Amino acid sequence: MSFNTSSRQLSKTDEAPEDVPSQEVTPLDAPAPGDTVQTSEAETPEVSAPETEAPEAKAPEAEAPEAKAPEAPEAEAPEATTDPEPKAPEAKDPEPETPEAETPEAETPEAETPEAETPEAETPEAETPEAETPEAEASQTETSQTEASETGTPETEGPEAEAPDADAPEGEVEAPEQAAAAPDPAVSDADTPTAPRPRRWRRVWGGWREKYPVAARVLAWTTTAVALAVVVVALLMPTQADKVRIAAFVRLPVEAIFGAALLIVLPRKPRIAVAAFAGLGLGALTVVNFLDIGFNEYLGRGFNVVLDWSLFSDAQGYLQDTFGKGGALGIAALAVTLVIAVLALTTLSVIRLGNLAARHTETATRTTLVLAIAWVTCAALGVQYAAGIPIASEHTMQALQFKAEQVQRTLQDEAEFAKIAKKDNFANTPPDQLLTGLRGKDMMITFIESYGRSAIEDPVMAPGVDATLTAENKKLTDAGFAAKSGWLTSATYGGSSWLGHSTFMSGLWISNQQRYRTVTAGERLTLPGAFKKTGAWDTVGVMPGVQKAWPEQNFYGIDKLYDSHKLGYKGPKFSWSTMPDQYALTAFERLVHSKKHDKPLMSTIILTSSHQPWAPIPELVPQDQVGDGSIYNAIEKAGKKPADIITDSTKSKQEYGKSIQYSVSSLINYLVKYGNKNTVLIFLGDHQPIARVSGNHASRDVPVSIVAKDPKVLDKIAAWNWADGLQPKQDTPVWKMNAFRDRFLTAYGSTPAP
Fold it and tell me: What is the pLDDT of residue 588?
């Protein structure tokens, strides 16, 4: 059986090389030797669409539109044994010059096939990506095995031929050699490149954005606005709570202008890296700013990035005592979560703004230029919203500069303070020349927690505290005691009581933890140590706030220490305070003062009932009912809870004032009951309460009083010009707390000997 070629005659010059072996076909399929292969639409009985030019006239099913390959030249493909639906195997591979089949007719070059001469636009099915993919990738050097792999899958229907992973429609050919040469479909799939599929979240987001375009735009604008707000707030955040106001954030930060200019000009990868690094740095600075606000609120100073990390363990202990273990853990977990959230938020915000500027380079460049000109103009003219709030801001650069200088000062201070601590005007004073004016006296140095100047002068707290001081001073007078009072400026504020204690007793200005470690590791002469050095006093310490080992005992010169575990207390804790002041003083009398001694006592007592959060507060009970402290169970349960007052400044002030009244009354009641003509009491506050109570920018002054029955004791300090009674006046002299030691030693007969 032969094929007629009514459309055109193939040229002799287009035959395949003679060295290609001819394919043996069955006699039924073999064309006559002299026949030439022609493709004719007219003689293709089953073709209904004009664009299908498949020459398989004898295989009507092959001309079905589903073949999607109209120009296959394999005219000699056997039809007698093929499935009724074979497709022209060369439909999608017009370029190769090697034959698809080994018959002479199959050696006809594909370049002369109708597909090569007919534009792809005339065959809609051939324009699908699937049909064009193998054409784009087929090269002149492909082996016949690769070509066979493109035509070896049988019974491929039209829809399947259009699938992305189908290289070409393939007919089922019975030729043994061709069937044997057909490679595994996976191989041909591997030769077909596919576009990388977007990540799932991108596909989901893209679909959602197309489905809800308005919501997507609103979400994008909102995200950008939030990112901009985060960056601006982080760049302009003040370090003090009282300065946080809207005007502080309506300024032009020069750091944002420089950052935008840099991100605009950077390529994508460096831009993202720089933005991520800048975002992390901005987040870290924001965390430090929050710490500055907290430290200014509680300690009256900013956070020291070198020294203050050790204070977090003390803060954790305070939280646990105040809110319980579970509450403390919850607060700590919340703090860590917030830190991570701030770092992530600032980083993502800077990256988003950088990408936005890169996508809209022209607009971003113009905007940055305008803002830069505005910043320079405002800076040159000194334009301000209000006093101290310039529009042209350099807040972040100034904050970084301050922190860098603080680190430098801290490191330098450590070396300088070590030299200062070695100089002691009384280090070499002989024992018999120390404190000669107090021989035979029972000495008490008592610190009242957070007893500051604000307690006496603040309009909320002063009425109650002043009334108490007046009443207690009358008790002293009635009992034959007299008092003089002055002001001392503490080295600390709002907390870190041990800094105030060490400053007062060592005569050194100990304002940070590094100085404290330095001085306590040395042999500086302290006030208790001076009494001990004379050999005329026994030194004891009553410290209910000490709940673990306290190596500073040796530094202070305390022979015997009574901490919270040795005072026999069986009652409840009052927030941070381990026991009421009245009980601590009663235990001191029972365990120490009432005992018979060969020498007078030099006692150092630290009272803690006025420690924040000032809820619940103990109440005075009859002295004979104090017992082991069990009486305080009902008082503690009936008292306020920290949560009741901790967030309310007025309530905190009121409760703080009550706690000071309780501590002062406990101490004076003890002195009147158990004191004698040889008792000398020095009592003072260690620092001011936190800023929420003492007020913003309050002084660091604390009251100090000396009480005695012997008039000679107070006569020796007449030159100090202190006020009579327990309440210093506004014009009473103010000394730095570290000055007290040398003045006291000198006033009471000590001879300087550096």
Answer: 95
